[in-house]
Specification:
The protein has one domain (3-206). It has ten helices and no strands. The protein has helices spanning 3-9, 11-38, 43-46, 60-69, 87-116, 122-143, 150-158, 161-170, 174-184, 186-206. The two termini are 33 Å apart.
């Protein structure tokens, strides 16, 4: 279901979903650029993308898709791994950063409310539940090893040059592959699989 349907049916629910979704995507992309910057690549900083300003990150088509069908994306943060001496290490660390940022948001949110035992109103409970679920889902989606998702780049960092070359060649068709998997229902299955792994690990860590 697209966000536009939610907006027309329940404006408050739209706000409670749209704000955490927007900033979870932004922080995901920001994490890529920040880790690349810390490893020696200033491309994201020079491009003005190390920012929480939504206007720096929103992709017109990705935003439109999000409103219409509930599946969208932000502009990828530009990085140049040639600026980092250990390219393979950079590929793994930079690609993992977005996923780890989303997992950290989900983990710290749940941990905070568990440790404080803070009573929550209905609106706060909905917001927190939405924030946690969105970040787990974003992490799960990006762990799928299909270009251009982060999982494929993480795999490239560990795989042989031959496998890396194959994945790099696939990237030009990645968007169409993802849309096809979404249409066939396979993407939902893969997301649910990685969500199950993530939730299992979080439950183990949180007791």
């Amino acid at each position: 279901m697209g966000l536009i349907n939610l907006l027309t049916r329940d404006p408050l629910a739209f706000v409670l979903v749209a704000i955490p979704l927007l900033y979870s995507i932004i922080i995901h992309e920001l994490a890529h650029g920040w880790v690349a910057y810390k490893m020696g690549d200033p491309t994201a900083k020079w491009s003005g993308r190390l920012s929480l300003n939504p206007l720096k990150h929103l992709d017109p088509i990705g935003t439109l898709m999000l409103f219409l069908v509930g599946f969208g994306w932000a502009k990828p943060v530009p990085v140049n791994l040639d600026n980092i001496p250990d390219r393979r290490k950079a590929l793994i660390f930079v690609s993992s950063a977005g996923v780890l940022a989303n997992l950290l948001i989900a983990f710290t949110t749940v941990l905070f409310f568990r440790l404080t035992s803070m009573p929550m109103s209905r609106i706060t409970a909905v917001f927190v539940n939405t924030l946690v679920n969105i970040n787990i889902t974003l992490a799960a989606l990006n762990l799928i090893p299909i270009p251009p998702l982060d999982g494929s780049k993480i795999l490239m960092g560990f795989a042989s040059e031959r496998v890396g070359y194959f994945l790099a060649r696939m990237e030009r068709y990645g968007f169409f592959i993802i849309i096809a998997l979404l249409y066939l229902g396979i993407l939902d299955f893969l997301i649910d699989f990685f969500r199950w792994i993530i939730i299992s690990v979080l439950k183990l860590l949180l007791g």
